[in-house]
Amino acid sequence: MPLFLIFGVGIFSLFLILDLHPPRLVLGLLGPVLKVTSYLGNTFREGFDHYVYLVRVKQENRILRSENERLRNELVRLREEMAICQGLEALEKEKLFRKYPYVPARVIYNPLDSFEGYLIIDRGEKDQVKPESPVVTLVGDTPGVLVGQVVEVAAHYARVLPIVSPESGVEVYSPRSGERGILKGQGLGRPLLLDYVPYGTDFREGDLLLTAGTDALYPPGIRAGKIIRILPRKRQGFFQTIEARPLVNIRKLRYVAVLITSREYKP
Questions:
Q1: What is the pLDDT of residue 215?
Q2: Which terminus of the chain is more exposed, N or C, with fewer CB under 10 A?
Q3: In order of start, what are the domains of the chain with their CATH numbers?
Q4: CA-CA distance, 53 to 131, in Å (whole number)?
Q5: Which of 217, 204, 215 is nearest to 243 (CA)?
Q6: Do the beta carbons of residue 188 and residue 111 sit within 8 Å?
C-alpha cells in the first residue's frame, strides 16, 4: 500500500478515535481503500475459520473411523462367540455327544497344500487332550461332523490328522444298509475313497456314512461323509471303487471340539 494511503488511513483512524468528522475529501479518498481492506480482512477471517473447521472435521473423522473399526472388530468377535455357543448347544442336543466330555478349540493352522495333511489347535495336555482323541466340528451348518483325530500333543497345542489326509482311515457304515468299509483320505480338495468294499455290496449314491465304532478310536454314529459316486471299475480286481464327500470343509475350519473318550478325564 502506498505511503500516503497509510498516512491517510492513520489520519482517518485518528478522526474516528477522537470522535471527529473527517473532511469530505479524506472520506472520499480513503473510503474505497477501507472497503477493500475490510473485504480482505473478512475474507481472510472466513478462510481461517473454514480451515479450522476442516481441521476439526478431519480429526473427528479420524476418531469416528477408529471407533468404527473397533466396533467392527467387536461385532466379529461377538458373532464368533455366538456361533460357538450355538455349536455347543447343538452338541448338547445330540445324544451321542452327551456321553463324552469335550473341549472347544480354535484351529490356529489349516493345511494349504493338498498333501500337507495336519491341523493345529490351541488345546493340549493341559486341557486333557491326548493322542487318538476324536475331533468334530463345532461351528458351521452341521456341528458334530467328524474332522479327524489328535496325533500329537504339547502342553497347550495339538496336531490333528484330518480325514481327508492320505494317512487317515476310518471304519464307517451306511445306516441304510448296514454295510461297512474303510473311509480313506486322498488329499485336500479330493474326494474320499470308501475302500475294502467287495463288489456287489449294498452301497448307493447319497448314502450317509457314520463311524462304525469298532476300531476302538471313534465313537459310533459320528457323521463322516456321503457317497457321491460308485464307479464301474474294480479295485484290485475285487473291491468296488466308491467315492465320498467329506462333510467338513478343512480349509474353512475355525473351531472344533475334541472328544475326551479317556476314562481318566477329570472335570
A1: 79
A2: C
A3: 3-57 (no CATH), 94-267 (2.40.10.340)
A4: 64
A5: 204
A6: yes
